[in-house]
TrEMBL record:
Record GO terms (molecular function): nucleic acid binding; peptide chain release factor N(5)-glutamine methyltransferase activity
Catalytic activity: L-glutaminyl-[peptide chain release factor] + S-adenosyl-L-methionine = N(5)-methyl-L-glutaminyl-[peptide chain release factor] + S-adenosyl-L-homocysteine + H(+)
Record's function text: Methylates the class 1 translation termination release factors RF1/PrfA and RF2/PrfB on the glutamine residue of the universally conserved GGQ motif.
PANTHER family given in the database record: HEMK METHYLTRANSFERASE, MTRF1L RELEASE FACTOR GLUTAMINE METHYLTRANSFERASE
Organism name: Acidocella aromatica
InterPro entries: DNA_methylase_N6_adenine_CS (IPR002052), HemK-like (IPR004556), Methyltranfer_dom (IPR025714), N5-glutamine_MTase (IPR050320), PrmC_N (IPR040758), RF_methyltr_PrmC (IPR019874), SAM-dependent_MTases_sf (IPR029063)
Protein's recorded name: Release factor glutamine methyltransferase
Gene: prmC
GO biological process terms held by the UniProt record: methylation
Residue span(s) of domain Release factor glutamine methyltransferase N-terminal: 6-71
The enzyme's E.C. designation: 2.1.1.297
Length: 274
């Protein structure tokens, strides 16, 4: 056994040596996860067993994302289960939910293309208590994870999840279409942080040679899946707003954008041009 404070100091030092950005914060979260308690629960323990945290620490030192190790990530104030089947939800993606709330739209039906953990759809259903939603992901394991999240968050009766490509299996229109598609240019993927390039699935990241493959596919199908007065909100990668605006306008939509907290145009809001 070792004093908890000493264990935290050792873990912090190992994480710092491995190049982890917030080693002290992560040390607390990692030790809490290893002991099956909360960060607050650690305070109640004077001593911990060193062998309890070594396997998790070794994974994090190898730059596996903390969220894959703990199995959880918060999004929009909600707790999501995560797995290597799909992307870990990012704070930037919350910009899309803010954009929907700012728009004044009161969606009754919501579609989330490339749903992953289900974070966008489920956060939206959490906000709009009368809405019903469909989430689609190419990876059946992601669709199954999103279903577990819906149950976990008490939203299981208002959400269904399908495995398939974009809207191929759908023959109905929605008030709101959401998507955070894969948008990284293929050649840039090896240059991403080790946590991303080494662990998050290529299918969740790779937007093709120009990063725009998924936007082209989704915008092409929007006329079949968006209600006349509906809105589509697509996440943008840095610098992609002009290209996505052009694609949207060429397909008969108006396109407004919303910035994230860093001032990057992060969300594209598409409506039918009248
Ligand atoms: C960037 S991740 C976003 C996940 C989640 N919506 C989020 O915001 O965290 C993109 C997701 O799109 C899925 N995907 C990729 N190609 C797809 C396709 N053709 N049809 C449906 N989903 C697809 C991936 O499996 C991945 O889960």
């Amino acid at each position: 056994m070792i004093r908890t404070a000493d264990a935290l100091a050792q873990i912090t030092a190992r994480l710092k040596d491995a190049g982890i950005e917030e080693p002290r914060r992560e040390a607390r979260l990692l030790l809490a996860a290893a002991l099956g308690t909360s960060a607050g629960g650690l305070l109640a323990r004077d001593e911990v067993d060193e062998t309890a945290y070594e396997p998790l620490l070794a994974r994090r030192v190898a730059r596996e994302p903390l969220a894959y190790i703990t199995g959880h990530r918060e999004f929009w104030g909600l707790d999501f289960l995560v797995s290597p089947a799909t992307l870990i939800p990012r704070p930037d993606t919350e910009t899309l939910i803010e954009a929907v709330l700012d728009s004044g739209l009161q969606p009754r039906t919501v579609l989330d293309l490339g749903t992953g953990t289900g974070c966008l759809l489920l956060a939206t259903l959490h906000e709009f208590r009368a809405a019903f939603g469909v989430g689609v992901d190419l990876n059946p394991e992601a669709a199954a994870l999103a279903r577990r999240n819906a149950e976990h968050l008490g939203l299981g009766t208002r959400a269904v999840f399908l495995a398939g490509s974009w809207a191929d299996a759908l023959d109905t229109k929605f008030d709101l279409v959401l998507s955070n598609p894969p948008y990284i240019e293929s050649a840039d993927i090896p240059e991403l942080m080790p946590e991303v390039a080494g662990y998050e699935p290529g299918r969740a990241l790779d937007g093709g040679a120009d990063g725009l493959d998924a936007y082209k596919a989704i915008i092409a199908v929007l006329p079949q899946i968006l209600s006349e007065n509906g809105m589509a909100v697509l996440e943008l990668g840095a610098g992609q707003a002009p290209s996505v605006t052009l694609l949207s306008e060429a397909a008969g939509f108006t396109c407004a954008t919303k910035q994230d907290l860093a001032g990057i145009e992060r969300a594209a809001l598409l409506r039918f041009r009248k």
